[in-house]
């Protein structure tokens, strides 16, 4: 309890420090800036009109994650903890790549709203950037997620079976990572055109689809038990099932896969969102182009890393996890480079200059 309270104060202090660091430069750059409240200002009315839909559209990932946690309370003991840990890893690439690119690109897209060609060119570039990094993260999570989860969490009461469960949940979430990332860019295009209601409605559909699919899948999977570090044993009556009896759900020493169903629902919902956004903007071809070559690279990286894991099986996690993750990233980047992905060229350019300076 004391550690949690200290961490909470640390977050608050960090936010205040960030404000204090930026404030002096802001004051120097915006001399004469005064805060005034003008009730009838047209800009204020526009902000009020668009604020709610924009928050729903931008926050759909967090809202969906919160709904997953609520539904997990209907599952066996340990489902909420597994989802929480998996969501930490899932949100990392979303925050680092998708949200950051979207935040950086929105002002420029808004300036180009009256130039359809320039807006389309910029959105294609942003989609390629996000797709490259999100597919890289998905490849690592799916191929080497067990090693990454084991390195980060395994130990004490967190068993090998718990590692497998969180890996499966992260892997299921990762199936929707590319769609989640590219959707943030498509939302930007809508916002640049002044359309906040459309993405908000689609975000609501995403939350509903995630909940519906999760409800259908999570209860049957809650009857599948993780045994040991890899083996799975199915309980009786999987089919269409409702929640387990309270006595079975409360067994803390049994690890079940119900949380994976919620993550699969989230992945299905993410792809539903991107399809609806692409249709609204008529950018289906641009989305397919952004995802095409990196998807091939991700598939090759997954297969190669799965083979590597057979060779390093039994190694300490402190060695095997970084090796497998780095190998997956390396294979992905090289294959993407060979497929002509610009972001891979950018990553490998310093290496090429160091090894073959005469070629540049």
Summarize the structure.
With 360 residues, the chain is mostly helical.
Distance between the termini: 57 Å
Rough outline: globular
Please give the count of helices: 13
- Total strands: the figure is 3
Provide the low-confidence segments as ranges: none
- Strand pairing plus helix content: what structural class? mainly alpha
Biggest sheet: strands, sense, closure? 3 strands, antiparallel
Radius of gyration: 23 Å
String of helices and strands: HHHHHHHHEEHEHHHH
Strand share of the residues?
under 5%
Task: Write a concise keyword list for the protein shown above.
360 residues; mainly alpha; three-stranded antiparallel sheet
Explain what you see:
- The chain has 13 helices and three strands; from the N terminus they run H-H-H-H-H-H-H-H-E-E-H-E-H-H-H-H.
- With 360 residues, the chain is mainly alpha-helical.
- The chain has a domain at 51-295.
- Strands 2-1-3 form a three-stranded antiparallel β-sheet.
